[in-house]
Write a structure and sequence with these properties.
The protein has 9 helices and 28 strands. By secondary structure, it is of the alpha/beta class. The chain has a 5-stranded parallel beta sheet with strand order 5-2-1-9-20, with helices on one face. The protein starts with 7 loop residues before the first strand and ends with a strand. 43% of the residues are buried.
């Protein structure tokens, strides 16, 4: 039978969706359903066969499939309803959800609360506007990862990787281990776009050329990629004339950023943050539409799955509270304002009388800095980087200081005097 009356509907069964479902069940929600358009739960964790997952949450070094397996088992033990190969077509501002599947057709439900956990997608060549023909051999790093780790297919033998995001650096190592030659990892910024550990373990340890402040300006080839033109860029990220060089290759991988998947959020009339690309949320992870919560990469792009899990668990607990209290909530709202060298902060506002985790990213790398949240919180940091998210856990006692503040609280990260 099609999915019927449920108390809580979760869209997406990646690490965020599974963690939110388990937490909501443990908080007392009777009917929790997770809808997933793929044929199996776990999101992209199944193709992330490298280790490094769960170091903070489980205090263990796990692979992606191992991390997913733990949460899949947890949701099954809690008797969470899992609807695979089912697509959410539309969500209204009144929480009316339209679903479709090959077996059941199209139908509608109206849960008491919804959690959005759709994750994110990769930025493509079309969004970069790189000149050249539409030849074979151009694909995103995540697609190449699936080809190798799931399908057992090699995308090419001579590879150039544009962008130094975590997936791009991990794939540079993976391709090298599988016998391909990675000609270069090309990054337009003066620093890598991923975690330091991936730069060291995937790039430096395998002696893969890393070209910072460079970009691909043209793709050559008719039937398949034959070469790319790489050029140095200036301080405005514009190619410098006379620095072009042609690099022979048969494959170009793109690791140029992730975009939160929020088409359903827009349908529901949810306010989005132009900086993160995800919903504006309060500390309960509730969006601007009452009863609709969000967590994980659909809100903002994370670098650690552990933080995705904690954030989604907060959404699951809050959704359970919303259902139990009949939609009551609110209280004094304090907006968090991004100050010096802070690009964004999640959550955007604080309303609850309890401790909260704040997630933020800086605009540019700095050393010997002090992170400040108004006059409430100060912490010295040796170094900060845009690619590594900052997490601040504020206790209930520190929250008491918030209540005595105004309607806005500035967060800054400044070099020490």
């Amino acid at each position: 039978m099609p999915l019927g009356n449920v108390d809580l509907l979760i869209v997406g069964s990646g690490p965020a969706g599974l963690a939110a479902a388990a937490k909501a069940k443990e908080a007392g929600v009777e009917k929790v359903a997770v809808v997933e358009r793929a044929e199996y739960p776990g999101g992209l964790l199944h193709q992330c066969i490298h280790n490094g997952f769960g170091l903070h949450y489980f205090k263990e070094d796990l692979t992606g499939p191992e991390y997913a397996h733990r949460f899949i088992g947890r949701t099954r033990e809690l008797k969470t309803e899992l609807c695979l190969e089912t697509m959410v077509l539309h969500i209204s501002s009144q929480r009316e959800v339209t679903l479709a599947s090959a077996k059941e057709g199209i139908w509608k439900i109206q849960p008491k609360a919804i959690i959005l956990a759709m994750g994110c997608r990769e930025r493509t060549r079309q969004q970069l506007l790189i000149p050249g023909t539409r030849c074979a051999g151009i694909l995103t790093a995540g697609t190449a990862q699936r080809y190798i780790n799931i399908d057992g297919l090699m995308p090419g033998k001579e590879v150039v990787i544009l962008g130094s995001g975590d997936i791009g650096m991990i794939m540079a190592r993976r391709l090298t281990l599988e016998g391909a030659e990675v000609k270069a990892v090309v990054e337009i910024l003066p620093y890598v776009g991923g975690l330091i550990r991936n730069e060291v373990q995937c790039i430096h340890d395998f002696a893969i050329p890393l070209l910072l402040q460079h970009t691909v300006t043209k793709i050559h080839g008719t039937e398949r990629v034959e070469a790319v033109t790489v050029a140095q860029v200036n301080g405005s990220a514009k190619p410098v004339a006379g620095t072009e060089k042609m690099v022979k290759c048969d494959t170009l991988l793109l690791s140029v950023g992730l975009i939160p998947e929020n088409e359903l959020s827009l349908m529901a009339g949810i306010e989005l943050d132009p900086l993160t690309g995800g919903p504006v949320v309060d500390d309960r992870m509730e969006t601007s539409v009452p009863g609709i919560f969000a967590g994980g990469n659909v809100v903002h792009v994370h670098d650690l799955v552990d933080n995705v899990t904690w954030e989604a668990e907060a959404a699951g607990a809050s959704a359970a509270e919303y259902i139990r209290d009949g939609g009551k909530g609110g209280g004094k709202k304090i907006a968090l304002k991004a100050g010096k060298n802070i690009r964004y902060i999640v959550p955007h506002t604080i309303t609850a009388d309890r401790g909260v985790n704040l997630y933020m990213r800086v605009r540019e790398p700095q050393e010997n800095v002090q992170l400040r949240i108004g006059q409430i919180y100060k912490k010295s940091l040796r170094a900060v980087r845009p690619s590594e998210m900052l997490k601040v856990s504020l206790s209930d006692r520190e929250w008491e200081k918030f209540k005595r503040g105004g309607k806005e609280l500035a967060v800054s990260c400044e070099r020490k005097d």
